[in-house]
Design goal:
The structure holds three protein chains of three kinds. By secondary structure, chain A is mainly α. In chain A, about 75% of the residues lie in helices and about 0% in strands. Classes of the chains: A mainly alpha, B alpha+beta, C alpha/beta.
């Protein structure tokens, strides 16, 4: 077998499942009612005030969420990276844990607390105090939930950026007579700008593509993913061409965001790093303020988790929370709804295994660049889905593989395909970095010792990237477990996942949300276990480099 | 008998010719060195012999058999890398045993012990490569390659990452092993001292061609090109016409006396003069006068850089001189390069 | 072939195998828009009576999604029975539903002459106000909400194109009052994407007034939600909730047995008791605490408007009425 045959086969497979569906969406967006090439869908889209509104809403939500998350994350990450804060490792651990939560979790919990009849609001009113606002429901609520959902990931990115370098640039600025504040604004922040841009982009992208949060807490505030869902999945007046236009717009805007982020990253200056950056001590007042700020932001990030776990042990009557403790929800979960737990675990497990296998191979081909064109194609193909919202991806898959001869609609295969396609980029990037650190000479040494390239890959390269492979697998797994936006469009009997059940319950007024809370709690356990393993890995790294 | 025959090998990367029609024979049991500055193509040639790269034209033969279609892992070579390329997740013993296990040879353990003992690392089987010094790591790498009994051992600047004294010690070690075991080796280096000391044959490479192929004495004493001559130290080239048995006139008109005879007057010659060949004396009227530019103290001697008749010369000199001093220059010894073809 | 390639192939094969295994299973599949609070107790009894039938329940958030799903699976249906959603939605898709005469059909108040849909409940869309939120005189008619001087705040309604409940409201209003009332009402509406939001916004007090299904309003009021139920004197829209056997179902006999069971006195009694939903049976009493049907002015829909006129009604609303209001 030629050494290019396998990468070519993988390239073809990925093209089929990544590129073809998106091209199919693109074609649909330019197809008129009679099946002719036409701009009619675009005219119809922009002629409809509802869609124009949805587009503007989604854009402003994305920008506001990105800005909010950055404003929270910059001071948090700066404190953790540069100062001796008590409980630093603990705060980082919490941040890692919050990055792994189902996207709809925050919306549900915050409505329970800060909705017009939320617990906190009722309490404030009962105590005779006014409430600063009547309800969190609305666009403000979407942004609030989005900020606390994404801030933790941005903190982790920025923490690494603020740790980079050895501080000699700041010392030089201080010696040149710059005040602390001036050093911060003229040296530290500009150096971290690419990372800040990346964080902003990730938070904004998440908000832009989020489907569950606006639906649960938006109070009818139209957004593009929700409008898209109804254009595609409602029974009357379906206009797939409209949905396709929305898809193309979303993908194009996300890609434009990515372009901006790339441009910022290209402005990165390498920082001298000859020794470890030393964390500075804090004065007593600053120390108290810092810990207070960190605790508050950790608390706000973790509120949804606490609420859902708490309410899973409470009685619900006709979908209304009664404050009576019970284990009934778990009993019912066990007797009625255990199947989705299995389905989620199995599908995510298979998806993770495939993503890890493909990701490891792809990372290898991309890093080694033995055939540069092939490496570049593979890299771009794998990265493509990271700018495509889940809903859009699902529609592409349905348009392409829904009908015979594929007839994959509603199969487990199409769910696994969607999971792999959506998460392959993350796994690949995780492995790539580690693989780039394995010198080519080590492989050549194995060849010279008589090992064939596959054998050298498995016995020499793979064992050295085991950590990254595990981290990629764990994060891929938890992202697949919590996937909502593509799953709700693609699932069918019997492949009902935990997220589908939780989401359906959350949307059915009067349904026993206690069972959904219990299931969410089980889901959190399912994703925190692998995450513990990953964060132990990263904590170990932290400790090696104190 | 010829172990490795490189015949007419050419290679270019992205339109830039890296190797141009290389001819080279490595006789069994000899150590041949590819010597040249970085970018001369020596490493590419070695990697083509290893099968890591493929020649655009020409052939590589092992024992008379063309290996174009034989991949690295079937060529039966040993390869020692500049950065050791030990596998960090395996112990020293496992590193050495890896290839032996692949060949399913009996008595792997014993072979590993012997291989490590040979390089002075007996009993270090269970050490992690990362805990060894650079010199020890390169010994392990050498043991790993030699344990396989390769048809040819390929070494790519194996000592460049070591510090100077260790480098000298290690090259004697390599030479000792080579004479004891009698293996065939192709050795790449940019260090002329290393090449002179270690090699049976040296191939001096420049810009993708072999400038001169010969024994270390040949290369040192009978360089055929200015490049080869210049490669072994600060050489000055004197171009001119022989005007007397021991004198020539440089193209600038300056008359230069030599101690060694120059042959028939009237010839055009190019002489290569090394610092050890230049004698400096007190300035007298009528001699070739130079001006001291700079003096480098090298411990046992001084290296003096001077200009004379527009040329820059280097000379070894025992006593201190100061920049600006005027000295008489005589050429005690010289190498004559063959006329350029 | 390398071992990596083999691994990927093996995993794909594993996925395909488990897929086939799952597809060939014997389970009778029920798609329903009803939540587990109703499906749980009803199906528990069905399972007790039919121990040989394996049953799988899939909840779908709305009637729109339900029929989109069934339509998408046409040709290779995965579901055997659908349950929940209005008669009009069923009547609009005769090609998706099997014509099966059920023994219990005769006991219901509404009978499909073709026996494709089978009535399971009567669902009234009444007005509710959140008593904590609402101030002033509570309305007693829909006309009050459309009056120019209406000051009770925005009235929540879902997009009729996306929600079966909202469609029923719209169709009822057009039938009884005509488009002019709808046009006057639109400026006072808070339009949301789905019926779930429509209901929960009033429940949470996000909105003061809205339309709501009678059963849900009754349950919530009983669970302590501050809701007042209003049966408008100028007409109450209602739907006949249905179940049906899917055309080409893999388990037609078991499917028909299940659909028949849903109409039975036993199942209907559970429905009335557990979720306060009115029975479709002539012999069943109304749920506790709701007025008798004879005391309510129900709006009877023009059957043509309800089924074939549905798309036209929705596009008139969306394209003419809404745009007119925006302008």
């Amino acid at each position: 077998m030629s050494r290019r045959a396998l990468p070519l086969a993988v390239l073809a497979l990925l093209s089929l499942f990544i590129l073809v569906p998106q091209l199919r969406v693109l074609v649909a967006a330019f197809t008129g009612p009679a099946g002719d090439p036409s701009l009619a869908p675009w005219q119809e889209f922009f002629g409809d005030a509802r869609f124009r509104e949805a587009l503007l809403h989604s854009l402003w939500l994305a920008l506001a969420t990105g800005l909010g998350a950055t404003l929270v994350a910059v001071p948090t990450a700066y404190l953790l990276a540069r100062y001796e804060v008590p409980g630093r490792a603990w705060f980082l651990e919490l941040a890692t844990m919050t990055t792994a939560s189902p996207p709809f979790l925050g919306a549900y919990a915050w409505v329970l607390l800060l909705g017009a009849s939320g617990v906190v609001m009722r309490g404030l009113r009962a105590a005779g105090l006014g409430t600063p606002f009547r309800s969190i429901v609305g666009p403000g609520g979407i942004v609030w939930v989005g900020v606390w959902f994404t801030a933790a990931s941005v903190v982790l990115i920025l923490h690494d950026a603020f740790r980079a370098g050895d501080g000699s640039l700041e010392e030089a600025a201080a010696m040149a007579g710059a005040s602390r504040r001036r050093t911060l604004t003229s040296i530290t922040l500009p150096l971290a700008l690419p990372a800040i841009g990346t964080g902003f982009y990730l938070a904004a992208l998440q908000a832009f593509a989020d489907f569950g949060t606006p639906k649960l807490i938006g109070g009818g505030y139209t957004t593009l993913p929700v409008a898209l869902y109804y254009e595609f999945l409602s029974e009357v007046q379906r206009r797939p061409a409209m949905a396709a236009v929305a898809c193309v717009l979303m993908a194009a805007l996300s890609a434009a965001g990515l372009g901006f982020q790339r441009w910022l990253v290209s402005k990165t200056y390498p920082q001298p790093s000859t020794r470890q950056r030393v964390r500075l001590p804090l004065g007593p007042l600053a120390r108290r303020l810092g810990v207070g700020f960190l605790s508050l932001s950790a608390f706000l990030s973790l509120v949804p988790h606490a609420v859902v776990v708490l309410t899973s042990f409470m009685t619900w009557r006709a979908g209304v929370l009664q404050w009576t403790p019970t284990l009934e929800n778990y009993r019912r979960l066990w007797s009625e709804s255990w199947a989705p737990i299995g389905v989620s675990l199995v599908l995510s497990g298979i998806g993770t295994a495939i993503a890890v296998a493909l990701g490891a191979a792809a990372a290898y081909w991309i890093v080694r660049r033995r055939t540069p064109l092939l490496s570049a194609l593979l890299n771009n193909l794998i990265m493509l889905p990271s700018v495509i919202p889940g809903t859009v991806l699902a529609i592409g898959l349905l348009l392409t593989f829904g009908a015979p001869p594929w007839a994959l609609a509603g199969t487990a295969t199409i769910l696994v395909v969607a999971y792999v396609v959506r998460r392959l980029a993350y796994v690949t990037k995780a492995v790539e970095t580690a693989m780039a650190r394995v010198p080519v000479a080590q492989e050549e040494a194995a060849w010279a010792s008589g090992a064939t390239p596959p054998r050298a890959f498995f016995e020499i390269v793979l064992p050295q990237v085991r950590g990254a492979l595990g981290a990629g697998a764990a994060s891929g797994f938890l992202q697949m477990m919590t996937e909502v936006s593509a799953t709700v469009m693609l699932y069918a009997v019997p492949w009902v996942t935990m997220t589908v059940v939780i989401f359906t319950y959350a949307l059915q007024p009067g349904s026993p949300f206690g069972v959904a809370s219990a299931m969410t709690t089980v889901l959190l356990v399912c994703i925190w276990v692998p995450l513990r393993l990953v964060s132990r890995h990263t904590t170990a790294r932290e400790q090696r480099a104190p | 008998m010829t172990a490795v025959h490189v015949h007419g090998v050419s290679k270019s990367f992205g339109g830039r010719a890296v190797l141009q029609g290389i001819e080279l024979e490595v006789a069994s049991g000899t150590l041949v060195t590819l010597l040249g500055p970085s970018g001369c193509g020596k490493t590419t040639l070695l990697r083509i012999v290893a099968g890591f790269e493929h020649a655009d034209r020409g052939a590589v033969r092992f024992g008379g058999v063309d290996v174009a279609k034989v991949p690295t892992w079937e060529r039966g070579i040993g390869f020692v890398f500049q950065n050791y390329a030990l596998w960090p997740h395996l112990t020293v013993g496992e590193n050495v045993a890896y290839g032996l296990r692949l060949q399913k040879r009996p008595g792997v353990e014993k072979a590993v012990q012997e291989a490590l003992a040979r390089v002075g690392l007996a009993g270090r089987e269970d050490a992690q490569p990362g805990t060894l010094s650079g010199g020890q790591q390169q010994r392990v790498s050498l043991a790993r390659a030699l344990a396989l009994n390769p048809r040819v051992l390929l070494l790519d600047e194996p000592l460049s990452n070591l510090d100077a004294s260790l480098r000298v010690e290690m090259r004697r070690e390599v030479r000792r092993l080579q004479s004891e075991l009698g293996f065939t080796a192709l050795y790449v280096t940019h260090d002329q001292d290393e090449a002179l000391e270690i090699s049976d044959v040296i191939a001096v490479m420049n810009r993708g061609v072999i400038e001169q192929l010969g024994t270390p004495e040949d290369i040192y004493f009978r360089p055929r090109t200015e490049f080869v001559a210049a490669f072994f130290g600060e050489v000055t080239f004197l171009r001119g016409q022989v005007v007397a048995e021991r004198a020539l006139t440089l193209s600038g008109g300056q008359r230069v006396e030599t101690t060694a005879p120059l042959g028939a007057p009237g010839r055009s010659v190019v002489l290569a003069v090394r610092p050890a060949d230049v004698r400096l004396g007190p300035a007298t009227n009528g001699g070739w006068v130079g001006t001291v530019e700079q003096v480098f103290f090298l411990g046992g001697r001084r290296l003096v850089r001077l200009t004379a008749a527009g040329l820059t010369l280097h000379a070894h000199h025992p006593v201190p001189l100061r920049p600006g001093d005027q000295v008489d220059v005589t050429i005690a010894q010289h190498l004559e390069l063959p006329p350029a073809t | 072939m390398t071992s990596l390639g083999r691994l990927v192939l093996a995993l794909l094969a594993l996925a395909a195998c488990s897929e086939r295994a799952a597809r060939s299973e014997r389970a009778v599949v029920l798609y329903t828009v009803n939540g587990p609070e109703l499906t749980g107790p009803v199906l528990e009894r069905f399972r007790a009576e039919h121990p040989g039938v394996e049953l799988q329940v899939v909840s779908v958030p709305g009637t729109g999604e339900l029929f989109a799903r069934v339509a998408a699976e046409r040709g290779a249906p995965r579901a055997d029975v659908v349950w929940g959603g209005a008669r009009e939605a069923y009547a609009a898709h005769p090609e998706l539903l099997a014509a099966v005469a059920l023994p219990e059909d005769a006991s219901t108040v509404a009978i499909d002459p073709e026996h494709r849909w089978h009535a399971t409940d009567l669902l009234l869309q009444i007005l509710v106000v959140n008593t904590e939120r609402f101030e002033g005189q509570r309305p007693t008619t829909i006309a009050e909400l459309a009056a120019p001087g209406w000051s009770g705040g925005q009235v929540v309604l879902a997009q009729p194109g996306a929600s079966g409940t909202a469609f029923s409201v719209l169709a009822g209003l057009v039938t009884r009052h005509g488009w002019p009332l709808v046009e006057r009402l639109v400026p006072h509406l808070w339009l949301v994407d789905d019926s779930a939001s429509m209901f929960s916004l009033v429940r949470e007090g996000e909105a003061a007034v809205g339309f709501m299904n009678e059963d849900l309003a009754t349950q919530w009021a009983a669970a302590g939600v501050p809701l007042a139920l209003i049966y408008p004197r100028d007409g109450v829209p209602y739907q006949v909730g249905c179940a049906a056997v899917i055309a080409g179902a893999r388990h037609p006999a078991e499917g028909a047995a299940l659909a028949n069971f849903l109409l039975s006195a036993e199942a209907q009694a559970v429905q009335v008791r557990e979720v306060s939903r009115r029975s479709s049976r002539r012999d069943a009493p109304p749920p506790a605490g709701v007025p008798a049907l004879s005391d309510v002015d129900l709006i009877e829909l023009d059957p043509a408007l309800a089924s074939s006129g549905k798309a036209a009604l929705i596009s008139t609303f969306r394209d003419t009425v809404l745009r007119g209001a925006r302008r």
